[in-house]
Write a structure and sequence with these properties.
Residues 1-26 and 362-366 have low confidence and may be disordered. The protein starts with a helix and ends in a 13-residue tail after the last helix. The chain has 17 helices and 38 strands. The strands form nine sheets. It has an eleven-stranded parallel beta sheet. It has an eight-stranded parallel beta sheet with strand order 15-18-21-24-27-30-33-36, with no helix packed on it. Strand 6 and strand 7 form a beta hairpin. Helix 3 (44-56) packs across helix 5 and helix 9 (239-248) runs parallel beside helix 12. Keywords: Aspartyl esterase, Hydrolase, Lyase, Signal. Its EC number is 3.1.1.11. Residues 1-22 form the signal peptide. The active site is at residue 528.
Length: 670
């Protein structure tokens, strides 16, 4: 028989062991919310913490951040929290706020079906749905707080946390014990899809090639944005990893999602840092120094911040000045911030499984084409490239023979530039209706000063001898001012059987002396939707006005024989459009002629407008010849316009309009 003292000590030890296991006050709030579900969430301690969680929740539905909810509250503190329930300041999803509290309440509700837990959870859900921007992103704080807090925030996984919560609820995974109504679930599905769309649209492109994501984006322009002084616009090696993991969790992913994942993983492989590790020195449990040191056996690392144009890692102190190495910044930021991460390692392991599951064994963004003069672009990875810009970038500069880029059906959300050295390219779509190049920049979004219009293009062609055929080019920004779909700044360019869609300034045709031929195209817009100074022949095209305004705004240079010439075209309009001018002079020597065109009743009887430039009436040349339709009123046109005689009209041949600059050319480019 054991002595009583021994038995007492054993019993005391067991009691203390139970109490230690039950107590969580020494843990962080995050670790409590992530605690495995079970009976502890029915304990008195858990119920006490839950009361705190309910108290901290604001009436709008969210919670402030960095609150250790498990800490006991005095009566005065409880009264203060009740008094600020209506206060909407500092409510956020940053640092896990709101998401953590909702997870905790769900685990409580599974053990104790207290309707207050359920109501609080659903109020938090309403808050998340209300806080989402129309473009699918979420700000760091809602209601919006001035400064970088209103930016779309991937930093510290804020938006990924929200989307993971919504995904679990909409898919009925039972991760959360509280199920909202069918009406709310439908809203969640819409919000989730919008969020994924925002992620796809913000994936950063270097020279047209998809890479990864930045920590935050401007909520209006979707351009990379700055946060704190040392958090400059940059590609993120940390946040991007969990974005990819989220995308890989989507069942039956779209081609766009697959494309985003593959390109991101390719980028991670490209920028990983090998042969180094982070070495930390501690004193009294605190980091007093942090260094990057050589270690050939170390696992790969990724920099937290990388340059947008070339992926070079950089580091910043609170002065916001970029440094090349960690050693160059002060002790406080060097040791107090996570400048390197290994989080992508887990994501890359998941990728191998995902790749096999989704049959991505041959899906690559960097395959070498079999024939460098005949390239195929396909979003599903069945071609040589998944991006049009990638294919253009990989063509030879100034090739001796024509390069044909065939683009399979799909919607390519790309801002594409064909550089001056990418000559002799034919970009041909599989079908005009289903091969779509789309983007959504506009004047206010670019915010680059008075010339912002010229940066808004979806597709910019600078290279000579370019052929564009059998596809759609569109700017989807809507009626928000100047927004170019197609910008052609090239000589000897042929655009055939294409849809060119937009609103104001849809088509910019420019370059002094440049000659461009549009054949069998559908071109639509609102104001000045065909503008520029190139010599352009539009033949057998449909020109569609979406509102009462002006079709053309030529800026033909002085002394040029031909400006815009429309032959055998149809001028149509939306049903409610009744007052459209054929053109007005962007510059006073504008030249525009309509010949043998069918004009709808929406064309104003005056035909032309001087843009409040009386001097243009003497210098501009606006003319017509044998047009037809309800909108052709030759006797009612402004007195300073012209009706061509047959002898004059005979000069408007394709040979004359595009007079050769090389007399010995055997085969005309058009």
């Amino acid at each position: 028989m054991k002595p009583i003292k021994t038995i007492f000590l054993i019993a005391l030890f067991l009691l203390l062991s139970v109490n230690v296991n039950a107590q969580v006050h020494d843990k962080s709030w995050r670790s409590i919310t992530e605690r495995k579900e079970g009976s502890w969430f029915a304990s008195e301690e858990a119920k006490t913490i839950a009361e705190n969680v309910l108290l901290y929740q604001r009436d709008i539905g969210g919670w402030p951040k960095n609150i250790q909810m498990q800490h006991p509250l005095s009566d005065n503190e409880k009264q203060e929290l009740m008094a600020i329930k209506k206060d909407q300041h500092e409510v956020t999803t940053d640092n896990g706020a709101t998401i953590q509290e909702m997870l905790f309440l769900s685990k409580m509700y599974r053990q104790i079906p207290d309707e207050r837990y359920r109501d609080s959870f659903l109020k938090g859900l309403d808050y998340l749905l209300e806080a989402q921007y129309d473009n699918g992103g979420w700000p760091q704080f809602y209601p919006l707080k001035k400064g970088y807090y209103s930016h779309i925030t991937y930093n510290d996984d804020s938006m990924v946390n929200i989307l993971n919560l919504l995904k679990n609820i909409k898919e009925g995974t039972h991760v959360y014990a509280i199920e909202p109504s069918e009406e709310i679930i439908e809203k969640i599905k819409i919000a989730f899809n919008k969020g994924i769309d925002c992620i796809l649209k913000t994936q950063y492109k270097q020279q047209g090639v998809l890479t990864a994501w930045c920590a935050q984006y401007d909520e209006n322009t979707l351009e990379p944005a700055k946060a704190r002084a040392y958090e400059l616009p940059s590609l993120s090696g940390k946040e991007s990893a969990n974005i990819v993991s989220l995308l890989m969790s989507i069942e039956n992913p779209s081609v766009d999602v697959k494309n985003a994942i593959v390109h991101a993983v390719n980028w991670f492989e490209k920028v990983k840092i090998t042969g180094f590790k982070i070495e930390r020195q501690f004193k009294n449990g605190r980091i007093i120094d942090k260094k990057l040191v050589p270690d050939l056996n170390a696992a790969p690392l990724w920099a937290r911040f990388m340059e947008l144009d070339d992926n070079t890692p950089f580091f910043c102190d609170r002065d916001g000045i970029k440094k090349a190495t960690l050693a160059e910044i002060g002790e406080e930021r060097r040791n107090g911030y996570a400048w390197y991460t290994n989080e992508p390692l887990e994501m890359i392991k998941k990728y191998e499984v995902w790749k096999e599951k989704n049959s991505i064994s041959t899906y690559s963004s960097s395959k070498s084409p079999v024939d460098e003069y005949n390239l195929v672009v396909a979003k599903d990875g069945s071609g040589d490239y998944t991006s049009i810009q990638e294919a253009i970038n990989e063509t030879k500069s100034f090739p001796y023979q024509r390069v044909t880029i065939f683009v399979k059906d799909g919607t390519y959300y790309e801002k594409i530039k064909v550089h001056e050295w990418n000559t002799n390219i034919s970009l041909i779509g599989e079908s005009k209706e289903n091969t779509i190049i789309t983007y959504d920049d506009y004047f206010g979004k670019m915010n680059l000063g008075r010339n912002s219009t010229f940066y808004t293009y979806t597709l910019l062609i600078e290279a000579a001898d370019f052929l564009l055929s059998n596809l759609t080019v569109q700017n989807t920004s809507g009626e928000v001012g100047q927004a170019v779909a197609l910008s052609v700044f090239a000589d000897r360019a042929v655009i055939s059987n294409c849809n060119i869609l937009g609103n104001q300034d849809t088509l910019y045709t420019s370059g002094e002396g440049n000659r461009q031929y549009f054949k069998g195209c559908y071109i639509e817009g609102t104001t000045d939707f065909i503008f520029g100074k190139a010599t352009v022949l539009f033949e057998n095209c449909t020109i569609h006005s979406k509102k009462n305004s002006y079709i053309t705004a030529a800026s033909t240079p002085k002394g040029v024989s031909y400006g815009f010439v429309f032959k055998n075209c149809r001028l149509t309009a939306n049903e409610n459009v009744t007052e459209v001018y054929l053109g007005r002079p962007w510059r006073i020597y504008a030249k525009t002629v309509f010949m043998n065109c069918e004009m709808g009743g929406h064309i104003k009887v005056e035909g032309w407008h001087n843009w409040n430039k009386p001097e243009a009436e003497k210098t501009a040349f606006y003319a017509e010849f044998e047009n037809s339709g309800e909108g052709f009123k030759p006797n009612s046109r402004v007195g300073w316009s012209h009706q061509l005689k047959k002898s004059e009209a005979k000069k408007y041949t394709i040979e004359n309009i595009f007079e050769s600059k090389q007399k010995d050319t055997k085969e005309q480019w058009y």
